[in-house]
Every structure is written in C-alpha cells, then in structure tokens.
Amino acid sequence: MNLRLRGKRAIVTGSSSGIGGGIAKTLANEGATVIVHGRNKTEATKVADRIIAEGGKAYVIAGDLIKDDSAEHIANEALQQLGGLDILINNAAAYVNRGWTEATANHWGELYNANVLSAVRMIRLFVPYMKKQNWGRIIQMASGEATQPFAFMPDYAATKAALVNLTVSLSKELANTGITVNTISPGIIVTPGVERFYREMATSKSWATENWDEIEKHVVREVLHNPVGRLGRVEEVANFVAYVASPLADYINGANLRIDGGSTAVIN
After folding, report:
1. By residue range, what is the domain housing residue 199?
2. Mean pLDDT of the chain
3. Of 11, 21, 117, 261, which residue is 20 to 30 A from 90 by alpha carbon distance?
4. pLDDT of residue 208
C-alpha cells in the first residue's frame, strides 16, 4: 500500500530509541523526511544514520522539551531544516517505576511536565505552520494505562490519560483546518527499556528464568493478559502510526486508537 507520505516532513520527539526510533524509521521508509529527536545526540544520530543508510532522509536535533526556551529552539531548528512541518509525533516521555507511596506531589508535577507539557509546547509551536498549509497530522503516543492503569506508576498513567483528553479538545479546536489529531495507545511493547524493566521484575517475583521468551509468557499471564498471547513489537506500532499519519487517514480524528493485543477490555 502506498501511504502517500513521500515528501511529507515529520518530527518524532523522543525517537533516539524504542518506539520513537521505530516510528522515525518507518516514516522515512515511506518517503517522509524525518527529524530524529532526543536528549542524547549520539543515540539520535545512530537512528538517523540507519535511516540514511537505507536510502531515507533524516536530520538530528538534540535537546530537552521540558522548558519553553529549549522547546522553541528545537522547533525553530526543525522548521529551518525542513522548511515547514506536516507531521508531529509527540512520543517523548519519561517513566519511573514507583508506586503511590514513593511518588511525591513534586514527582507528579515533574512527570506531567515531561510527558504532557512537552507535547503542548510542540503543538503550540507547530500548529500555526500546519494551519497555513491547510494540512497536518498530530499524534500523541499514550498507553493502555491511560484507560486501565495499574496500581503502580500512577503518575505515569495519569499523564497518558491527559494526552488522550487533550487530543479530543485539540481536534475540536482545529476543526475544518485540514489538521487531524489522534492518540495511539500501545499495550506493552518490547523495547530495550521494557525488556530491562521486566527482567528486573522477573528477579523480584522469582520467576526463576533469564530467558526472555519465558519472561514474556509470565508478563502476559501475570501482569497484562491479552487474547493474542504475546507482547507487541515496535514495528507493529510504527506501521500503525505511519498509516494514521498518512493522507489515507483523513477521516480519523479525535480518536484514541489502541494497539495492545486486546488487553484493554472496553468496548469503545
């Protein structure tokens, strides 16, 4: 299928690894020119180099999105490199494995700034340019925890719920502009960070195995069951994002789209 992304210009925040890196590579494979963003320039450059080696077009911008001035610098540099912007993927996020007892009010505020306000900063900086061209895609990367949170990491889950909410509001604000706004909520996706997280859990829960295939089975049985019977892969999420970011998805707007193997047990 031709997603008609050739010539489109995209930035994927937090794309120096994991899901963000996979999204950047898939968009580039479909013909988009991509800004690979991350706080670690070395890691972001590795992703961009792989894209270029495979015949794609990519630039690197390093920096933090938790302050207005640094976010503005990143946006200005992206616009200078690309000459405009068509696709904004708000993927940058932080998480800490802590529960209600450990998470202070300050921790909640810091995570809200990193996961929600960083997206708001990017939206405010890029939307005026999308409006001028009467076309754009804004996608927030949330999580199944936005709808069905665990007992642990409550501050993280709340930030993801906020992204789902702001997507609906923004889609209404941008009605009839040619810009669509959606959220994509993955379930548990196997990234290096997720693998480290559950390897640590395997030790704490005495799962008595270091084999990742066996650990994955424990996660599906004991942490988050889904009818597919396995965890998701980065490529699956990236392919989904690329479709929603494409001109083929003009009629998808204001939606929270789950890709979680059916683990979120709701009917809407």
Report:
1. 190-230
2. 96
3. 261
4. 87
